[in-house]
Specification:
Layout lengths: L2 H11 L4 H8 L3 H9 L6 H11 L3 H16 L1
Helix pairs in contact: 2-3
């Protein structure tokens, strides 16, 4: 699963709206929407901040995303 899908799935599992995540991370609602749609990619610092707010370990999330994306390209 792509990174944005993993992050969105975790946000929804917590029962949070995009606005809640934006408020907790200090990011704009538009930024959260763009990331989840895949039209924009977070920089490393924002990604770590987002993962921390969601309570997930970013290294395993990124690793799973890379493995899935690479396998799908074959």
């Amino acid at each position: 699963m792509k990174l944005q899908g993993q992050l969105m799935r975790q946000r929804k599992a917590l029962g949070w709206s995009q606005q809640t995540l934006a408020d907790l991370t200090g990011m704009s609602l538009a930024t959260v929407k763009r990331w989840e749609l895949g039209t924009s990619t977070p920089n490393a610092m924002d990604l770590f901040q987002w993962a921390a707010a969601l309570g997930i370990e970013i290294t395993s999330t990124v690793s799973e995303s890379v493995t899935t994306d690479t396998a799908g390209a074959a």
